[in-house]
Amino acid sequence: MKTKKWQRRLLRVLGICAFILLLLFYVLTDPITTDPYFESNYYKNTVAKMDTAFLKKVDVNGKLLAGFARMNISPKIVADSPDTAKGEFSAIKMAGYGDGQFATGVHDSLFAKAIVLEVNGKELVFLSADMVVIPELVVQKVAENLEGIISREHILFGATHTHASIGNCIPKFVGESFGGEYQPEVVAWLGKKFTQLILNAKKDKKESKFSSGFIHVPNLIRNRIIGETGRLNDKLNLVSFSQNEGRKAVIGIFGAHATTIATWNDKLSGDYPGYFQRSLETKGVDLALFFAGTVGSHSNKGKGEKYEKTKYIGETLADSAAVVINKMEYDSVVKMTAITTEIEIPELQAFYISDRRRVAPWVAEKLMADMQTIYLQGVRLNDLVWLAMPYELSGEYGIDLKNALEVAGYNSSLTSFNGQYLGYIVPQKYYYFETYEAQLMGWYGPSMGDYLMELNFKLANELTDKRL
Predict the structure, then answer these.
(1) What are the residue ranges spanned by the domains of the chain?
(2) What's the maximum distance between 2 C-alpha atoms anywhere in the chain?
(3) Which terminus of the chain is more exposed, N or C, with fewer CB under 10 A?
(4) What whole-number distance in Å separates Cα of residue 115 and Cα of residue 121?
(5) The pLDDT value given to residue 12
(6) Residue 366: enclosing H or E segment and its boundaries?
(7) What is the per-residue DSSP string for 54-81?
(8) What is the pLDDT of residues 440-465, one digit of tens each?
(9) What pLDDT is recorded for position 98?
(10) What is the model's pTM?
(11) Is the dihedral of CA 41, 44, 48, 50 positive or negative?
């Protein structure tokens, strides 16, 4: 009798536990939303904001002024009495590795670089840094520091996406998982450095000329979602500004992930974009910048192991760039159009549970850093169209827009990490495919890619005054 009584109690306890677990499962998770995005309020609100932004766009034509600047942002790791205002820290985690490494030193210096343009009194800034992303809190510091001088809406941010750079800049669980414990001192230091960088470039403005071009480099990039059968955005885009006094700046935009360096490394490095920039600066270029392009589905490929491979990719890419640069024809008169618009996003659907359920939005929000105003920015300089996006766009998506622009007679640059981060944006056909890009880093549901691509095309249409 005692045995049966004990068994009944055990079954009762197990039943209660099962009920609690089931209840928690339905409280902590939500169904994946598959409703058409174009019927949503966030879509309608965003389109209305874009239409308003189009009425306020910068649209000028005239002689070009351009100023260049660089700044070393390699932090110093010191054991005793670090001075964070001088970039000295007791520990810096290298962002992007996940479980990652703490930096023990510097393999090759990290830089932030900026170009300030002016046409008919209207200024525009391109800023890229040897970082995995440009953290929103750093951008906010820069905007605060430059208030009344240059508006945030006139700065296009980008990152090289090296995974061996500065972490400790993004709060909450997800940010700290990829970049280490949040340290506001790092944010303040970087904000100050980026601010001074922009001011230095602004002071350097001189009469200049502009050109752009591209070259296909299929031997250095691969589709990392489905391999050789996948579509490939293999264009290396080049944008060049040449001051009449002789100094030249060149921006390279490429879609291969800067991940030649992995957890075997414990030193700060710019990865292959660092080698690319240094190599170009030995080929007659005074300031070389790199912006990560449509890296949301593409990785690098090359010869060698570890830093040998890093060097091979960077220097081979620079050799390809030199072919284009040496043939460029420059314009001193520039038509500049610039648009900055706010976008709204759907509820979070982050963290895969099953093909039908994800972690509930209210739970995911507690794990991820808060975001303020989310900007999508577009610029036209003569026959170049540049979109600066706050996410990692798939190269497969990028091909469609770049091809449409090329047919219409335009070069194009599509860059990621514009001051915020919305995760990976990959085609809907991959959403239920078992991949890191979709299941771990696809945060907003299966329709997010099509939604954002509609916005990208809408912005490009307005910049070109065409129906692409």
Answers:
(1) 29-57+335-464, 65-325
(2) 100
(3) N
(4) 16
(5) 75
(6) helix 361-367
(7) HHT-EEEEEEEEEEEEEEE-PPEE-SSS
(8) 888 999 999 999 999 999 999 999 99
(9) 59
(10) 0.94
(11) positive
